[in-house]
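Hi there, hope your week has been kind to you so far. Please have a think about how the structure follows from the sequence. I've dropped the whole record in just underneath, so have a look:

_____
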Amino acid sequence: MKTTAFKSINKKIIASINVLLLITATVKAQNSIPVKTKTLNETVSKMTMYEVKEGEVTQFQKILSDYVANAIASKENIMAEAFYEEKKPTILWLIERWNNKKELEKFSKKEEAKLAQTLAGKSLLKSAKTYYVKDLEPLTKEQWRKTSKKEDNQLVIMLFVDAKKGTQQNFKDTYHIAMPQFRSEPGVVTYQLSEIEGNDTQFVTYEKFRSNEAFQYHLNFPPIKPVIEYLETSIKNPPFQNGLHNLIEFAPLTRE
């Protein structure tokens, strides 16, 4: 009789343990789902550099212009712009942001994207270089779609920064303080700092001004002083001006 009772108790304990294991497994599975969903739903920020053969530039610009026009027509696109470098017009840049990875992948299967990929195969001096970036102090879609005015003489600058190891948080903190003030300047259209994915010491700034005069005002704006001090003392390969790229927009060329 005691043995029967013991077996009965034993079965209840085993059953309880099984239920506990099942609950634990279910909780783990449920906790893993949001992480995956979050990754899929995160904004995708992508910059692609093309070094184009001399005689192929016009055709490649046309293909990228069509790509940009169709991208910004998508409700899932945040921004898309294309540029050539002022001093190296054979170097083109495509800069785009999407609501999530799935939408970017879906768009990459469209005709405009496939044409760009096909033409890249025969028009480039070397393979395109793609940077995926994480925006710090991110902008909204409306802010990204803000444009210069028709009468403006727009100036767009990208600055690549390779910080000395151990100083990158100082760089981010310095920009965190200065960013709201930079964005409030009357001559600033867009100002964004991003961290290049895969290397936490590498950053890129994207700065769009209404004119060269607005840019000169920015260079003399008091809040920029700590940023300049950092750039002059804490990057791997000074001077920081070597990381500057002056860009000329050719798509979408929309204006207020």
Residues 1-9, 12-39 have pLDDT under 50 and may be disordered. Strands lie at 44-51, 77-85, 91-98, 129-136, 155-162, 188-196, 202-209, 244-251. The longest strand covers residues 77-85. The chain has eight helices and eight strands.
